[in-house]
User: Fold this.
Amino acid sequence: MAIEDFSSFPKEYEEFKKKFLDISGIDLNFYKHQIHRRVHMFMKRWNINSYDELLNLIKLDKDKYKAFLDYLTINVSEFFRNPERFEILEKEIIPLVMREDKSIKAWSAGCATGEEPYSLAIIFEDLKIKKFPPILATDIDQTALDKAKLGIYDIKQLQNVHPQRLEKYFLRKKENLYEVIPSIKERVEFKKHDLLNDPFDRDFDLILCRNVVIYFEKDVKEKLYYKFRDALRIGGVLMVGNTEQIFGYKEMGLKSIKPFFYQRVK
Ligand SMILES: C[S@@+](CC[C@H](N)C(=O)[O-])C[C@H]1O[C@@H](n2cnc3c(N)ncnc32)[C@H](O)[C@@H]1O
Assistant:
């Protein structure tokens, strides 16, 4: 098979998607076409010449399976990604959604390796938001979640952390490695969850779903936004990524209150 030509062998790819769904529970049909290219890039990288060879490999070799998932889902993240958005979140959105008892029910959906929910936890700690309920942080990728729970990061992922916060909320492990302190870790509850197939909890004050839906097809994306709308309480806010916007948000009962922040109004 000419690995470079990822659009050839459509029948084989359809078969591959079915078999991969059986193995992983992940339905690649929901993902954009670029995922097909990534499958092939992975195959090229590891010298794999057919889909069956790839399937056998990921069935037999747990590490390769994890590497493949990592490669497909591109779980890069960083603390306070797009810092100007986090500033608005901290100064304007959190005061808006906070409940009378100073609690916030928040969800980081597609949290990857934990930088996003821990950033939120740091803000909550500074603003003295109640520790209960913990921030729900979910992802489809168990390897990413395992790393998130460890809470150890390279300095490169911490570039947007204010020096005072770095000092207060991280322990320096080695030259370039920092660990989130226990009181921040305790504020986050990590769980494996597939946004496309698993049920959503309800009554959230705040949902962050950033740089996740970019991989999904248009209609899948739209259905997902409706599910997020239902998961918010009226008045709750959904924060999306810096390159994302929700088309038809008004029909969904959402109001755009700032760029990339949508409030449920009905
Ligand atoms: C680029 S990361 C985003 C991390 C973080 N939200 C941020 O903006 O920095 C995308 C994450 O979406 C997750 N993901 C992809 N498909 C998913 C699905 N169906 N359900 C839950 N998470 C999914 C991936 O595993 C990956 O960790």
